[in-house]
């Protein structure tokens, strides 16, 4: 018997008008846009922050590492600690934390206080993601769940395409403190939006350690977790070094890397919504295609990406494929554990964030000890292993 069969049914939500449901979905998408922007914005501001606070760029990198690791632990812990608290209240409280912590970052007099503020950012990111990633099933009608999930995760793509570049640009022109102050203002706007449009979200079930562990007895959840680790780990092992790969393998001038990465982000945004549409018809096949496409695109850099045109085309194909990863795997988790969505989503968010950090870390060792070629082979191999893992679930009735 699977975990989904053992857990009690979701608490029935009050009827909400269709227009209000989509406003709520859009508000949550704005939240995901903010979370990813807040997590990744320091990448573009490392030099200016390090210079202002008298730390090296390597040390300044803790602004990215710390919230990612904290978010991984916060994802399962926050739902456990709040018990039966209304999830609307929880999301609003977490967005309040995000507002205050980004303001604290902007005002930090030294690097120690700045890192402490980023710890709070990590708590907000992990807790918000754990709840928000599974909200589509509660905010949208059953037929609209894949589309609503795509909208929520569209905030991720939009952050990469618009949020981080614009925030970095703002920081370059006005200073990094203004950039983080702007993040705080955006968090406040999101907080007001959530307060106005989110309906009451009674806790579906109280998350306890036992319930989290029980998810691993569900074959679909196990496959989803393993596939997530493999895909995200492999992607970030390779993508962290995509800039030197484009320059050294494809011969692309450094001045064109930025526009190409923008193209990668746009392709990812398109891939997100294309996957959302396909998932409404066939979850298993869509996730399998995404995994295989990633498994082919990364190693092909070594064969067909040895020139400018080939490198640019393969980067866009890579972006299209990876764009469907978040919405595809989250939909997989919803289908695998329809009566334990928040518990399964908490685990998923935790391994997703850990895989980002570990992928970048291992990728760095491989580049230093071997070559750029090594991370592309690793990324492709991990994605193909994920495809084989997904293939083992072909007979699972949850994906019919």
Can you give a write-up of this model?
- The protein is mostly helical.
- The protein has two domains: 16-197, MFS general substrate transporter like domains (Growth Hormone, Chain: A, Up-down Bundle), CATH 1.20.1250.20; 211-399, Up-down Bundle (Growth Hormone, Chain: A).
- It has helices at 3-6, 18-53, 57-60, 62-82, 87-107, 111-132, 136-139, 145-174, 176-197, 209-214, 219-239, 242-248, 254-279, 283-304, 308-323, 325-336, 341-369, 372-391.
- The two termini are 18 Å apart.
- The model is unreliable at 1-12 (pLDDT under 50).
Structural class: mainly alpha
Largest sheet: none
Strand content: under 5%
Return residue spans where pLDDT drops below 50 for at least 5 consecutive residues.
Answer: 1-12
Number of domains: 2
Order of SSEs: HHHHHHHHHHHHHHHHHH
The CATH class designation of the largest domain is Mainly Alpha
Gyration radius, in Å: 20 Å
CATH architecture of the largest domain: Up-down Bundle
CATH topology of the largest domain: Growth Hormone, Chain: A
Question: Which key features would you list for this structure?
Answer:
single chain, 400 residues, mainly alpha, Growth Hormone, Chain: A, 2 domains, 0% strand, globular, disordered N terminus
Topology, element by element:
Blueprint: H1 3-6, H2 18-53, H3 57-60, H4 62-82, H5 87-107, H6 111-132, H7 136-139, H8 145-174, H9 176-197, H10 209-214, H11 219-239, H12 242-248, H13 254-279, H14 283-304, H15 308-323, H16 325-336, H17 341-369, H18 372-391
């Amino acid at each position: 018997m699977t975990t989904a069969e053992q857990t009690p049914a979701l608490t029935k939500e009050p009827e909400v008008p269709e227009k209000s449901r989509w406003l709520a979905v859009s508000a949550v998408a704005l939240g995901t846009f903010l979370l990813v922007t807040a997590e990744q914005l320091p990448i573009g501001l490392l030099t200016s922050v390090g210079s202002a606070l008298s730390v090296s760029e390597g040390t300044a990198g803790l602004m990215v590492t710390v919230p990612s690791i904290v978010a991984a632990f916060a994802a399962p812990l926050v739902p456990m600690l709040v018990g039966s608290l209304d999830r609307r209240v929880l999301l609003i409280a977490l967005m309040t934390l995000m507002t205050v912590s980004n303001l604290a970052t902007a005002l930090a007099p030294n690097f120690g206080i700045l890192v402490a503020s980023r710890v709070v950012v990590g708590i907000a990111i992990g807790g918000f993601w754990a709840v928000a990633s599974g909200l589509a099933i509660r905010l949208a009608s059953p037929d609209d769940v894949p589309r609503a999930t795509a909208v929520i995760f569209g905030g991720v793509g939009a952050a990469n395409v618009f949020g981080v570049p614009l925030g970095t640009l703002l920081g370059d022109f006005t200073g990094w403190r203004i950039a983080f102050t702007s993040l705080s203002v955006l968090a406040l706007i999101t907080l007001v939006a959530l307060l106005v449009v989110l309906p009451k979200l009674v806790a579906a079930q109280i998350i306890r350690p036992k319930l989290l562990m029980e998810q691993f007895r569900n074959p679909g959840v196990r496959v989803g977790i393993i596939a997530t680790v493999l895909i995200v780990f492999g992607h970030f092992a390779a993508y962290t070094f995509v800039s030197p790969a484009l320059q050294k393998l494809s011969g692309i001038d450094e001045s064109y890397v930025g526009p190409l990465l923008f193209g990668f982000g746009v392709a990812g945004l398109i891939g997100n919504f294309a996957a959302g549409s396909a998932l409404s018809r066939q979850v298993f096949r869509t996730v399998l295609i995404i995994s295989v496409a990633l498994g082919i695109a990364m190693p092909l850099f070594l064969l067909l990406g040895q020139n400018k045109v080939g490198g640019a085309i393969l980067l866009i194909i890579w972006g299209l494929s990876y764009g469907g990863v978040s919405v595809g795997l989250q939909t997989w988790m919803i289908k695998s554990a329809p009566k334990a969505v928040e518990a399964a989503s908490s685990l998923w968010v935790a391994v997703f964030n850990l895989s980002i950090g570990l992928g970048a870390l291992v990728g760095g060792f491989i580049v230093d000890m071997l070559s750029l070629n090594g991370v592309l082979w690793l990324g492709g191999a991990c994605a193909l292993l994920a495809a084989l893992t997904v293939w083992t679930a072909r007979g699972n009735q949850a994906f019919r």
